[in-house]
Structure formats: C-alpha cells, structure tokens
C-alpha cells in the first residue's frame, strides 16, 4: 500500500469518527461488515504480497497488524481527550478495527469468509481475544451490541480510557497493544489452519497418486 493509500485510509477512518458515521456503524450488521471487508481485504493482501513477494505469511500478517496499530493509536489519542463521553465510541471503533484486522489475516491465510463456518470461526476468535467467549451464532447482530458487550466485560481495563486529557497517550498505548494481541492470536489460529490445510492437500495428492 503506497503512502497516498495509507493517508487516504487514515482520512477515511477519521471521517468515521463523526457522530453520524458512528451511528451508522453502530447499527451495521456484523455479517454485512465482514462481507463488505472481504473484497477490500483481498486488495490489501494482494498489494502486500506484490510489495513483499519473498515474505512469509506471518511477516505479512505483522505488517497488517502494524497498519491497524497505527489507526488504533490515532483513535486512542482522539478518544482519550474526551474521556468517558468518548468511551463507547472508542470501543465501537476498536471492535470495528479488530474485525477488519481479523478479516485481513483470514484472507491472507486463504480462509473463505464467504462461508458461514469461516465467518463464525473468525467471530469466535474475536470473542475469545476480547474475553467474551464465542459469539452466539444469532448475534450480536449489530456492532453497537458488540461494543456494549466489550464495555460490560472490560471491567478495570476500561478505566485507563476514562481519564480525560492526561490519558490520551495511555489510551493510544492500550489500543495499540490490544490490536497487537488480537493480531497475534489470529496469526496463531490461521497458521494452524494453514498447516492443516497443507497437510490435508498433501495427503489427498499422495492418495490420488497411489
């Protein structure tokens, strides 16, 4: 992704912090968000693979994580200034950013997110990474409910986000670290998925050749 593309991406994310855009995001269905991101994820992954043709998937995944960490830090710096008032918006946006990251990593490892099973596995991964466990298959149906679940389960971790002004860099730091943790869990999961897929493929080829 070029410099212009990264700047454009940041501007697009900043635009989403307006009340009207956050309201739209809050009412968006999870399945719609994932399906909409699949096409964009393919573009992002293809650009990375083109720029770094010798890199292993794990290295490319870290680059995807780093891109989202930059956005998470930026959002944390903004929301930290507004303290408690911005806390729900911060959690809503962080949930959205994590889903984008998971979609990117899943796409990198060739998971077919157009299938209900693959989407369910990815959302379960999101749930476990955030300490809320597997998400019910029937819900939460919208991003706002997901952010509410994060707020309910966050406990003491949310207090650092609630301090105005002084906490802006602290909030940015926690957002950054959390994105790294979610990304690492995704890589571990899909690395195993990728190896299992390769093993099954090799087994099929051996069986067909015998």
Describe this structure in words.
With 210 residues, the chain is mostly helical. Helices cover 76% and strands 0% of the residues. It is built from 8 helices and no strands. The longest helix has 42 residues, at 168-209. Mean pLDDT is 77; it is low at 155-166.
Gist?
With 210 residues, the protein is mostly helical. The protein contains eight helices and no strands. The chain has helices at 3-15, 19-26, 30-51, 57-82, 87-108, 116-129, 143-154, 168-209.
Report the β-strand fraction as a percent range: under 5%
Number of helical elements: 8
* Quaternary structure state of the chains depicted: single chain
Task: Look at the structure and give the mean pLDDT.
Answer: 77
How would you sum up the global shape?
A: globular
Question: How do the helices and strands follow one another from N- to C-terminus?
Answer: HHHHHHHH
How does the helix and strand content classify structurally? mainly alpha
Unreliable runs: 155-166
Supply Rg: 18 Å
Helix content estimate? over 70%
By DSSP, the count of extended strands is 0
End-to-end distance: 45 Å
Characterize the main sheet.
Answer: none
